[in-house]
Amino acid sequence: MERDLIPIWEKAVLNLEETAAYMGIGVAQIRALAHATRHGMGDFPAFWVGKAIKVSRRALLQWLDDVAVSHRDLTKAVAMVENAKQMSEVRGRGRPRKRKEAVA
What tens digit of pLDDT does each residue of 14-39 get? Predict the structure, then answer.
């Protein structure tokens, strides 16, 4: 059975990839907007089903209208994505190991 039987424009709930395709932006920015909302820093219409992020299509359309009318800038979401990339590159997991001095 095929997974994509219903076209995106008829679905009630979209996943990250479908939302990114619908909006024309990257998945990382959608994820950043959703996490910002989860932590009280935004109003993006996302919700979680287990670990999966879902977006209501009707609420997304309303949110896009509100963003367009208010001329809001979404650079905070872009900055959050960049910050997350830098943190993942710079830091490893756990506490750093002690370096042993070379004995001469």
Answer: 999 999 999 998 898 899 889 888 88
